[in-house]
Amino acid sequence: MSATDLQNGLSVVVMGTGGFILPSFEAILSSKHHIVAVVTRPTRAAGKRRSPVNPMRETAEKVGFALLDPPDVNAVGVQDQLRAFGADIMLVCDYGQILSSDTLRATRLGGVNLHGSLLPRHRGAAPVQWAILSGDTQTGVSVIHMTPKLDAGNILASRSTMIGEKETSAELEARLAILGVEAVLESLDNLQGAGGSLENNIHATVGQAQDESKATKAPRIAKHDGFVHWEMTAIDIDRRRRAFVPWPRLTAFVPHMNGIRRLVCLETEVVEGQSIDANMPPGMIAEINADSFIVACGGGSRLAIRQVIPEGRRVMSAADFLRGSSVRVGSQLPVSVDNGDTP
């Protein structure tokens, strides 16, 4: 590869859907590398409660890129379209489909993937949420040279950061997206320098192999994962509240009139100190204070709930909620609810 080629940078097909890739997308636009196409998921009809969101589509269209949005990126016709761009590399992040070997061969150097964890930990669709759910104190981003196996390619670059004690998934993901910029640019620079040894060979040895013995899974989050199960410890429930921001959010169920209603828990805190009466069942209201109500949880632990959204109402403090509620000390909140409400 000539000095001129190195100066010109790589031609890149960007492939993504969510917002995690956007800081890297914008950084590449200002770098020596150049984007030749953007591939994203097709638009779906909006559901009753959640409209489809595609930050990659919105940003690319504003910049002026024509988009490919195939239902199946591994279809032969789509692979032909990708080859026609004559691109050097694909940058993939939060795209939503696993790329086949033939699709990865559609660009000269295959593909790289920006992933929101320190691989091999938390392979899968929800690494940020699972880092918080698992109680990790540290996480980061990894850029891998892709293979058809999910998140298993060699690591080209990584960056790490500590997880804040009260940090939510939304806050952490925003920080990781920025952290990923440097790792992505480093990876593109290094792949450009590797030159012809990688051409059309997605199994070439480049980067650091992952330790398979340390691999963990981070499967996609479902709506019902947000339902509170009070037999969990207060620490675990509070982690779920942080992990499930902005979706599906931590949702409890409370007595109301002749039935129950949902209660989204926006602000919670583990109550430290002496545990509650061991005979008090999980889900019972143990105490009511000026700014919170405290619920018994598994293992004798306690969780303070400070801010909520009652079903069909606005955000309010726990005190405001209690004034219009039948919840009292000794009230039993359902441990779980099976009402056929699937994700």
What features would you describe in this structure?
It contains nine helices and 13 strands. The chain is an alpha/beta fold and 343 residues long. The protein has a seven-stranded mixed sheet. Strands 8, 9, 10, 11, 12 and 13 form a six-stranded antiparallel sheet that branches.
Give a summary of the structure in a few sentences.
The protein is of the alpha/beta class.
Secondary-structure map:
Elements: H1 3-8, E1 11-16, H2 22-29, E2 34-39, H3 55-63, E3 67-68, H4 76-84, E4 89-93, H5 101-104, E5 111-115, H6 127-133, E6 138-145, E7 154-162, H7 169-194, H8 234-243, E8 251-256, E9 259-270, E10 285-288, E11 293-296, E12 302-310, E13 316-317, H9 318-323
Parallel strand pairs: 1-2, 1-4, 2-3, 4-5
Antiparallel strand pairs: 5-6, 6-7, 8-9, 9-12, 10-11, 11-12, 12-13
The CATH class assignment of the largest domain is Alpha Beta
Strand arrangement in the largest pleated sheet: 3-2-1-4-5-6-7
Distance between the termini: 51 Å
**Mean of pLDDT:** 90
What's the architecture of the largest domain in CATH terms? 3-Layer(aba) Sandwich
Strand proportion: 15-25%
Tell me the CATH superfamily of the largest domain. Answer: Formyl transferase, N-terminal domain
Strand count: 13
Q: Judging from the principal axes of the Cα atoms, what is the shape?
A: elongated
Alpha carbon gyration radius:
24 Å
What is the name of the CATH topology of the largest domain? Answer: Rossmann fold
SSE string: HEHEHEHEHEHEEHHEEEEEEH
Number of domains: 2
Note poorly predicted spans.
339-343
Major β-sheet annotation: 7 strands, mixed
How many helices in DSSP terms?
Answer: 9
Class inferred from helices and paired strands: alpha/beta
Q: Into which percent range does the helicity of residues fall?
A: 10-25%
